[in-house]
Amino acid sequence: MLRKFPKITIWRVIFAAIMLAGAYATYLRVMYGLAGSTNLSDKFPWGLWIGFDVMCGVGLAAGGFTLVALVHIFNIEQYKPVLRPAVLTAFLGYTLVVVGLLYDLGRPDRLWHPLIMWNPHSVMFEVAWCVTLYSTVLFLEFLPVVFERFGMHKPLAWIHRISVPLMILGVLLSTLHQSSLGTLFLIVPEKLYPLWYTPILPLLFYVSAIGVGLAMTIFESWHSSRAFGRALELPLLASMGRVLAVVMSVYLWLRFLDMSHRHVFGLLSQNRIETWLFALEIALIAIPTLLLYQHRIRMKPGKLYACAVMVVFGFMANRLNVGITGMEAGSGVHYIPKWTEVAITLSIVAAGFAIFRFIAEYFPIFAAHSNETALMELAEQEEDPVPVG
Amino acid sequence: MPKAILYDSTLCIGCKACEGACAERWGLPYNDRVAAEETISAHKLTTIETHGDKFSRRLCMNCLQPACASVCPVGALQKTALGPVVYDASRCMGCRYCMQACPFQVPSYEWDKRLPKMRKCDMCFERQSAGKITACSEACPVGATKNGNRDELVAEAQKRIADNPAQYHQKIYGLNEVGGTSVLYLSAVPFEQIGLRTQVPNEPLPETTWRVLELVPDIVSTGTVLLGGIWWITNRRAEVSKKEGRH
Q1: What ipTM was estimated for this complex?
Q2: Is residue B141 included in any domain, yes or no?
Q3: Is pLDDT of A247 > 60?
Q4: Preferred mutation among A37, A74, A107, A177 to probe B, highest tally of B CBs within 10 A
């Protein structure tokens, strides 16, 4: 019995290196605690694992609820082909967020405590409940894929019966905790830099999560079409690009309005690190938003993909600014993550990519709804997300 | 009657007797090396800071409306009627939101432990419950740290300022900061010059998040009706068009 040795490619080498570094960092985290594995301190208690793994992770998984709402609640059938990858990303995303939390919590063995020890005044308590319930919902939303794969018709019919309330619950829970990640930072008015601290932080977090959910869906479709050699659902993705442009325009407008009401534009004349990071974040969101308004850019796969990637990076810049860099001046501390923090974060991301690829290869993720006729119809309509009549 | 501590920086001689008494009360090691540290940490819950020829003291402010207790997802931190904000380590899961939320950067973490806890001053809750004064006020040889009922201490602080206006900066730190704290400061110079955070708002911080959290029931109920309604309409429309053979 000779198994074929997997071909060594540059990506596989990088993947192995990241996972090895992550394994060693995990050993350090377990044996030497947070002091031995992070650069966190009493004055800077939240770092990369919260700022990236949790705050970006939950946001990047927002495609799940956005697409479920579009396809099943607003009944926009055209988006069905990308629904499953979005739900899969969300499910994987939330699982990995919990993995990240296990590293970050001082007592990961007590992860379950908020479920029985209540404090309804705590935003973290609400987030804990929402994330727990929503992960369960995502699991149930993903189950049909597993049932289909193994031809289990009875449970499939059973789960279809509860699917509508399930999906409404999922959208509600997402609305709550996506915005609550912003609410978390309302408690630090004197620490978070005024370019980011605003009472409407929850609203901004919610709207940007919807946007990045769409951007991630475009991102995944592009990658999976290359990885599995399938045709790209271009008209569909282009129409999604248009929705993305509108969502991010609303987002930018809200931020502009909010800043003008709080009279903080004067801060932009200061030559500080915060000003430049703010400019970077806004540019990474505003440039793709403007570009996506143009038909010729939306219809070019490479350019559409580049715009989606920019939105994703702009989103991450925002979350890292709120969670980390925007907190430094107010805390009076300079924080740079330790290599172990970076290694574990990279391992979690790499594991996410690998598991997604594995599941997409062996389960009906992309094949499910992309029948020829649907694509033909879409091609005829070119890009019109709202069916008329 | 809520208890409080009045710390008068103009009386403090920097002898650090409060530090030693505090360490003894918590069973923490105290020696010259620890005494030299001028920051509070998991092994030093109060400290005397030197600011030129002035002294200042750091300890948990035991806020009247504590941000730490409001953000704790498991209710490990509780504000007692007596005044102290107490911590139940058996509930704590180590999310460190209390540390992030504290406007005075007080809670400390046992970063190097495998099973860490948060540490902070609890204004000697068990001593005060038994009718005794805090260990630090008992140890203070010059009365710079005084323990008593909050309203009486506020009155005394106001009297000290009124009697000696030249000696004092005309404010009491902790009277209104974040809605008021159990630790009150008097100083000869503006408070930022003795290392206190003066940019903290006077609004109680739990309000900032509660304003949003209290909307949750509204969002859930309105959202359910709205999403259910939209689904019902769009689904019905699809059914009709299918029946009429338009699809």
Answers
A1: 0.92
A2: yes
A3: yes
A4: A107
Residue B148 lies in a domain: yes
pLDDT of amino acid A389? 34
Whether residues B116 and B142 fall in one domain: yes
What 3 state SS string does chain B have?
CCEEEEEECCCCCCCCHHHHHHHHHHCCCCCHHHHHCCCCECCECCEEEEECCEEEEECCCCCCCCHHHHHCCCCCEEECCCCCEEECCCCCCCCCHHHHHCCCCCCEECCCCCCCCEECCCCCHHHHHCCCCCHHHHHCCCCCEEEEEHHHHHHHHHHHHHHCCCCCCCCCECCCHHHCCCEEEECCCCHHHHCCCCCCCCCCCHHHHHHHHCCHHHHHHHHHHHHHHHHHHHHHHHHHHHHCCCC
User: A328-337: per-residue pLDDT in tens?
Assistant: 999 999 999 9
Domains of chain A in sequence order: 10-365 (1.20.1630.10)
Q: Does B12 map to a domain?
A: yes
**Helical axes A123-149 vs B206-213, angle rounded to 10°:** 40
Cβ–Cβ contact B66 with A under 8 A: no
A162-201 confidence digits (pLDDT tens)? 888 999 999 999 999 999 999 999 999 999 999 999 999 9
B65/B137 same-domain check: yes
Domain extent, residue B237, equals: 215-243
Count of the separate structural domains present in chain B: 2
Check B209 against A187: CB less than 8 A apart. Answer: yes
Across the interface, of A124, A164, A171, the residue whose CB is closest to B71 is A124
Q: What is the 3-state secondary structure (H, E, C) of A309-326?
A: HHHHHHHHHHHHHHHHHH
Closest partner CB to A123 (pick from B108, B213, B235) = B213
User: Is residue B210 situated within a structural domain?
Assistant: no
Q: Which residues of A touch B107 (CB under 8 A)?
A: 42
Higher pLDDT pick, B123 / A389: B123
Top residue of B95, B97, B210 to mutate, by most chain A CBs within 10 Å, is: B95
Q: At B228, is the pLDDT very low, low, confident or very high (cuts 50, 70, 90)?
A: very high
